[in-house]
Amino acid sequence: MGPPMLWGAGAVTYKLSCPLAQQTGLGARIVTSAVFFVVGTGLVVHVRRTLLRELRQVRKVAGAAQSVLLRPPPPRIGGLDIAAAQLSAERGAVVGGDLYDVTATEYGVRAVIGDVRGHGLGALTTAAAVLGSFREAAHDEPDLTRVLTRLDRALARHLRERARAGHPSAGTEPDSPVAEEFVTVLLLEIRRDGELRVLNCGHPWPYVLRADPAPGGAAVRVEPLSCGEPLPPLGPFPLPADLTPSAHGRLLPGDALVLHTDGVEDARDARGRFFSLSAALTECVRTRPVSPQAVLAAVFSGLRRHSGGPPTDDAALLVLHNARQPAHHQGEPVGHRAHPVV
Length: 342
Fold this sequence. Notes:
The protein is α+β, with helices and mostly antiparallel strands. The chain has helices at residues 2-17, 19-22, 26-69, 120-140, 144-166, 262-265, 277-285, 292-307; strands at residues 76-77, 80-87, 98-105, 108-116, 183-190, 195-201, 207-210, 221-224, 246-250, 256-260, 315-322. The protein folds into 2 domains: 2-58; 71-120 and 182-322, Phosphatase 2c, domain 1 (4-Layer Sandwich), CATH 3.60.40. It is built from 8 helices and 11 strands. Helix 1 (2-17) runs antiparallel to helix 3, helix 4 (120-140) runs antiparallel to helix 5 (144-166) and helix 7 (277-285) packs across helix 8 (292-307).
């Protein structure tokens, strides 16, 4: 506040004590106007610099929050090449309601991707609660079902605490926005032999990039990985008692999984047409080997071209590429269930 006060005091002193400022002639008025114009310009420049400095500080804090919440995964985990990124719908924003993480455990590589309903600080804290629970449960629980149960309990506890903070005198109110909040979650496990098990709670199914292991084989095929209707999102409804992960065969060496949030395929162009993630992946791998970073760059580049800029919703991608050495007996490829779903 020092410079603005000095400039203001100088302008007032000039007006009250300078003989020239008391004159009413044209020259005196021009000089007086010039003095106040300089003072006003100085104030505007000072305020602008202050706001820019504070904006840079806020972005640094947001970047630090992103590095804690959505930690960039290492390039390789448990024999899998990894790439992940988020494209925010809001200009200048670095953290949204999307979440993802990958970790290597004694039970295999486990990954989660999800999407919190809504935006803003509430969505950010909800994503943090879910990710924090995953990072602990993924190592503690041998059963993938128990991991999902831990995520559901952590979310319910978080929403109760938010509702209690919003209505300290009465618990959760039926019409509270917190009571309507939910999170879509896709939880998967890739074991050492490539066996893939998935639990899907209202989230878009991923795509499989399946390589032909034969020398000179056909180009990489892009196929959706699906197993019927997913479970309801976490939050509004309790998990079913007979919860069982679905088996999807094996992720063979050279194969890749592309996990995404609904902001990718919900993006529209100027004519209202949805973005085709399948077509973008097919074009990406048509003439080049599968590379997680290349897939990530190609999809986001195509998404920006399709939307004419940032999408209207946050979009996140997580690519898992099996870079392990082929074994003699690999079993069924991913997408073909080794066992019927219970």
